[in-house]
Amino acid sequence: MKKSFIAPVVLLALMTVAAWGETETWKSGSTTVTLTDDGKLTISGKGPMENYNILDKNSPKPPWLGVRISIANSTMKNVEHITSAVIEDGVTSIGDGVFAECSRLTSVTIAKSVKTIGNFAFVGSVALASITIPEGVTSIGAVAFGDCNKLTSVTIPNSVTLIDKMAFNECLRLTSVNIGSGAKTIEQSAFAAPKLASINVAANNPNYSSADGVMFNKNKTVVIMCPRGKEGAYVIPKSVTEIGDYAFTRCAFLTSLTIPAGVKSIGKGAFQQSLSVTPRLESIISLNPVPPSIGQETFYGIPLSACLYVPQKSIDAYREAWRDPTATGRGPRSWKEFKCVEDLEDAPK
Length: 349
Fold this sequence. Notes:
There is one protein chain. The protein is an all-beta fold. The chain has helices at 8-12, 315-319, and strands at 16-17, 24-28, 31-35, 40-45, 47-48, 67-69, 79-80, 84-87, 91-94, 107-110, 116-117, 139-140, 153-156, 162-163, 176-179, 185-186, 198-201, 208-211, 214-217, 222-225, 232-235, 242-243, 254-259, 265-266, 283-286, 293-294, 307-310, 340-343. The protein has a domain at 231-349: Alpha-Beta Horseshoe (Leucine-rich repeat, LRR (right-handed beta-alpha superhelix)). Helix content is 3%, strand content 28%. A hairpin with a 2-residue loop joins strand 2 (24-28) and strand 3. The chain is elongated. Residues 6-20 have low confidence and may be disordered.
């Protein structure tokens, strides 16, 4: 079972049971937070919200997260009160952790005045099926939408310049992401979602590009991120000279991967797989007669049954290639540790 980001003891300490018909109000930074009896949370004011460190049990937590209700003549006993949220015009930030683990939150309206969405802002909001991030937001914090398991697609507006690490981590139903023209920094793990099949970047983005659902640098010389849900055989474009760190991490549904002749280096953990999932990868086809340099644990978790296909004259070179002395665990630790190294001409067609 996957662990929640927030220790239950932290939220239990916050719980208060609200009587049906009550309205509660709190201050948060420069804003006022109001929770009405219908479960609607409204954030109003001019300026930023307070940030809350939800991982530290000794730090103050958003008081509205602990409000729970019991509805008469219903099975809904001691449940979270918040079902919808409106961030009004004038508010400039959604603070860290402000909607963490709001399991009944189904709708959110964000005003165009909001510039930042904080770390862990909506983590664990498992009922949230859609989110509209307005033009004007410039940054999305770490784990901001982690574990939002009903999200199926996300559009990042042109105004966003930073998408931080694990921003959409483990969103179990997320299948597509569209990234606008303004993105300057996208952390490698930003879209670590198991069913994500397509990452699409705006053509006029000066820093990133995409093709066939895979993300690259602008000139398509570096593979940055393959979505984890991509299936079948994948041929890396001929323009690529480098495979970035963790570029194909946990892409467990790929069956074959073709590396073009121009690739000279492959980053650490580039093909790393999870030990909890059995990868389907059957073959790696490397067209370069010279074995590309590899980083630490590049092939960690790849099935030992996977076959490496290389130019016939280069088989010995691959079998004698450098071995990573620091690598541990399952899978080949270098080119030379593939048990099956065959002539390129015998590769699956």
